[in-house]
Structure formats: structure tokens, C-alpha cells
Specification:
Blueprint: E1 2-5, E2 9-14, E3 17-22, H1 31-34, E4 35-36, E5 51-54, E6 61-65, E7 80-83, E8 89-91, E9 98-102, E10 107-110, E11 129-133, E12 136-140, H2 143-154, E13 157-158, H3 170-173, H4 176-179, H5 184-195
Parallel strand pairs: 4-13
Antiparallel strand pairs: 1-2, 2-3, 5-6, 6-7, 7-8, 9-10, 11-12
Length: about 200
């Protein structure tokens, strides 16, 4: 057996094996904080469920309950807004249609879905989890979305192995200010504040 040391590890060699033992009082960081590849396997649609919004009646925290489905187009009777404070509730089917197009002899009304902004896709209410960060708006649909953003931002190495997603993954669609190393600490503080909101 041969042994040699450095500041962090003790190396013992039992030919043909090589054994590495961390020194006492040395903490090994978990790789989850150093690297991530799961952020390139998620899409924004994965977080469109149980979204937290501002109640239109009392301006407190409200939830939009959405059934599990692969499609962003949901049954209007199953999408429901529920306020946890004042009890305000409304189904998407009760929301009046908007004028989508007008012409000389026809008016087309309906509803539309908005994705990728600081409002919910269906009722278009402001999100509860919204704050100003680095001269931009940092927003999330729910706690799971916030956790995703936190994991992606704090990762030192972001690996992209799932090439079949191409540019559809949420990790590839995040703005530059959010993935910049210089903004990392500021964004993580803002995410922590939103988690405690």
C-alpha cells in the first residue's frame, strides 16, 4: 500500500485500487448545487398548475386550481380561481369573452391564453410571486417554479444533454440577466424573499 496526502484528501493505493478519503473537518459540497441538467428537461407548461395570483377582490393571495393535463388548453369548467382570504371564487367558464377580431360584418369573441409574463395564463391576473430584481421583473407561477429557478440560478455548471428538447426547455429560454453569474446572489436573495412572501 502507498499513501500520499494533499490539503483536502488522503489517497491510499492498493494496487490496482485507488481509494480517496476526505480529511476530517472537510465538507464536500453536494453536486446538486454545483451542476444541473434537469433545467433543460422542463418546460414552462410543467409549472402551469396551482398558480398563485393576487385576488381581484381583496388583493390577497389566491390560487388558480388547474387539473392535471398535458395540454395548456383546459376545460373551462375545471379551471377555478379561489381566494384563500375573502372566499372569492370563479370558474374560467364564467369569465366573459373578449373581442378578438372585428370586421365590417363580424365580431369574433373568445378567450386566449397568455404564457411567459407576470400574469396567469387564463384569468390574466397579476402573479403573487413577483418582484423587481436587477432592473427586471422576477416572477414565478408557484413554489415549484421558484424552486426550479433557484436550482438553475445557483448551479455553477448547467449541462444540456437532452438535445431532443432543442430550444423548448425552460432552462434555454431564461433571459440572460437571470443566467448571468454577476446577478446570481441578487437573484437568489429575491427568490428567498418570494418564498417567504
Amino acid at each position: 500500500m502507498t499513501s500520499f496526502k494533499n490539503d483536502l484528501f488522503t489517497f491510499d493505493t492498493y494496487w490496482p485500487l485507488f481509494l480517496v478519503k476526505p480529511k476530517p473537518n472537510f465538507v464536500i459540497c453536494p453536486m446538486t448545487s454545483l451542476r444541473t441538467n434537469s433545467s433543460y428537461q422542463k418546460q414552462i407548461y410543467d409549472f402551469i398548475k396551482d398558480m398563485v395570483v393576487i385576488c381581484p377582490s381583496c388583493h390577497a393571495k389566491a390560487i388558480i386550481k388547474i387539473p392535471e393535463s398535458d395540454s395548456v388548453h383546459k376545460n373551462e369548467f375545471e379551471v377555478k380561481l379561489i381566494c384563500l382570504t375573502c372566499g372569492h371564487n370563479k370558474r374560467l367558464a364564467e369569465k366573459p369573452g373578449l373581442i378578438l377580431h372585428t370586421s365590417a360584418n363580424q365580431i369574433i369573441t373568445g378567450k386566449y391564453v397568455v404564457i411567459g409574463t407576470a400574469v396567469d395564463p387564463y384569468f390574466h391576473l397579476p402573479l403573487w410571486l413577483t418582484t423587481t430584481c436587477c432592473d427586471h421583473i422576477l416572477w414565478a407561477y408557484n413554489d415549484a417554479h421558484l424552486d426550479f429557478l433557484k436550482t438553475h440560478v445557483e448551479a455553477k455548471l448547467r449541462e444540456r444533454h437532452n438535445q431532443n428538447m432543442k430550444n423548448k426547455s425552460l432552462g434555454s429560454r431564461l433571459p440572460k440577466w437571470m443566467t448571468s453569474k454577476k446577478n446570481r446572489e441578487t437573484i437568489l436573495k429575491a427568490i428567498t424573499q418570494l418564498k417567504n412572501k
